[in-house]
Automatic annotation (TrEMBL):
It comes from Alkalilimnicola ehrlichii (strain ATCC BAA-1101 / DSM 17681 / MLHE-1). The keyword NADP applies. Its EC number is 7.1.1.1. The transhydrogenation between NADH and NADP is coupled to respiration and ATP hydrolysis and functions as a proton pump across the membrane. This is NAD(P) transhydrogenase subunit alpha part 1. NCBIfam families: PRK09424.1. Keywords: NAD, NADP, Nucleotide-binding, Oxidoreductase, Translocase. It catalyses: NAD(+) + NADPH + H(+)(in) = NADH + NADP(+) + H(+)(out). Residues 4-137 form the Alanine dehydrogenase/pyridine nucleotide transhydrogenase N-terminal domain. One of its GO terms (molecular function) is proton-translocating NAD(P)+ transhydrogenase activity. Belongs to the AlaDH/PNT family.
């Protein structure tokens, strides 16, 4: 089985779908690895780091012989055009957008497995890229906040006086939020955190943060949150406003699957924050948790800085690529039997992850949208 890794082409994407640290595992699977020359450079890996991998100059030549293609960003129409019928491609497929790209996958009868669609069941944890990359975002968001803040995060006792620790608030305590809490605690900040799922209270407290109870509980399906009613939103906003106003840094991570990000911080609340306060909005790309957030930009509102970073995992390219490669490897193990490619549709992980196969869109909501 030939497994090919092209260079990522989307501007700003520094990750690669195969990191040298995962090579041994792939080799044990008995697959033949091929990579486009220089594919790892942006991530910090030289071609020489890929021992045993066949390096190919042209993307066309690479994709034209692949049985399996490993990607980070969705394959472009041009890339899909270079693949043979029946090729399996794995990576982010952004099933909610890029209709012409999805149609091209169908037209070319490509089997696409979407990392966004991997079911969140225990057996699939090692395949779950939303989790591996979400944890990276949570970590990095705190570093961004600390770097942009005009304050120390830790308490410091010095000859020039004692500095009080920064107050950090984390909104949304899922995978990214919990990592943000842990990182802010390691930097010595005093951390408060909030989530609508009450199960998170214990997790927040086990990390040494204080859980903010707004009295609003909104457990949805499959361990996710549901959207709040107008009344719940108002109640939540009232309690949170005082915490937000008193914080030196706020990290927001709140999301609801398949919906735009919930708006949690309005302009009036930002105006209650002190000069020098920083908001890092990890939901920027899906509309933002703060009303003033602009994706990919810094907004200064009366001395409060609102940062809306895009593609945060890409900025931790080495480790993000390592973790992502392992997610892909673990998915690939489900497709290889006795050295041959074999798609077992009775396996929930394969069936749920599949976006397109044999000329059809397999993912229900995407199929309905395209019809
Ligand atoms: P997510 O990125 O969809 O959302 C982030 C957080 O925002 C969630 O914790 C959610 O409850 C919270 N949120 C939504 N609306 C909010 C609001 N109005 N105010 C405050 N917070 C709000 O979620 P995620 O981090 O990807 O994962 C969420 C859940 O899935 C967790 O329970 C996690 O344990 C579970 N999970 C399971 C697996 C697995 O078993 N394979 C893998 C990953 C995650």
């Amino acid at each position: 089985v030939k497994v090919a890794v092209p260079r990522e082409t989307r501007p700003g994407e520094r990750r690669v779908a195969l990191a040298p640290a995962a090579l041994r595992q792939f080799e044990k699977l008995g697959v033949e690895l091929l990579m486009q020359k220089g594919a790892g450079l942006e991530s910090g890996f030289d071609d020489a780091d890929y021992k045993g991998v066949t390096l190919v100059d042209s993307e066309e030549e690479l994709l034209g012989q692949a049985d399996v293609v490993l990607k980070v960003q969705p394959p472009t129409e041009k890339e899909v055009g270079m693949m043979r019928e029946g090729t399996v491609v794995m990576g982010y497929m952004t099933p909610h957008e890029g209709d012409s790209r999805i149609k091209e996958l169908c037209k070319r009868k490509i089997t696409s497995l979407s990392m966004e669609l991997v079911p969140r069941i225990s057996r699939a944890q090692s395949i779950d890229a939303l989790s591996s990359q979400g944890a990276i975002s949570g970590y990095k968001a705190v570093l961004i906040a600390a770097e942009r803040s005009p304050r120390f995060f830790p308490m410091l006792t010095t000859a020039a006086g004692t500095i009080r620790p920064s107050k950090v608030l984390v909104i949304g305590a899922g995978v990214a939020g919990l990592q943000a809490i842990a990182t802010a605690r390691r930097l010595g900040a005093q951390v408060n955190a909030y989530d609508v799922r009450s199960a998170t209270a214990e997790q927040v407290e086990s990390l040494g943060a204080k859980f903010v109870d707004t009295g609003v509980k909104a457990e949805g399906e499959g361990g996710y949150a549901r959207e709040l009613t107008a009344e719940e939103k108002k109640k939540q906003a009232e309690v949170l406003a005082d915490y937000i106003a008193a914080s030196h840094a706020v990290i927001t991570t709140a999301a609801i699957p398949g919906r735009p990000a919930p708006k949690i911080i309005d302009k009036a609340t930002v105006e209650r924050m002190g000069r020098g306060a920083v908001i890092v909005d990890l939901a920027a790309e899906t509309g933002g948790n703060c009303e003033l957030t602009q994706a990919g930009k810094d907004v200064d509102h009366n001395g409060v800085l609102i940062v809306g970073p895009k593609n945060v995992p890409s900025s931790v390219a080495i480790h993000a690529s390592e973790m992502y490669s392992r997610n892909l490897y673990n998915l690939l193990t489900l497709l290889i039997k006795d050295g041959e490619l074999h798609l077992n549709w009775d396996d929930q992980v394969i069936a749920d992850s599949c976006l397109t196969h044999g000329g059809e869109v397999k993912h229900g909501p995407t199929r309905e949208r395209l019809e």
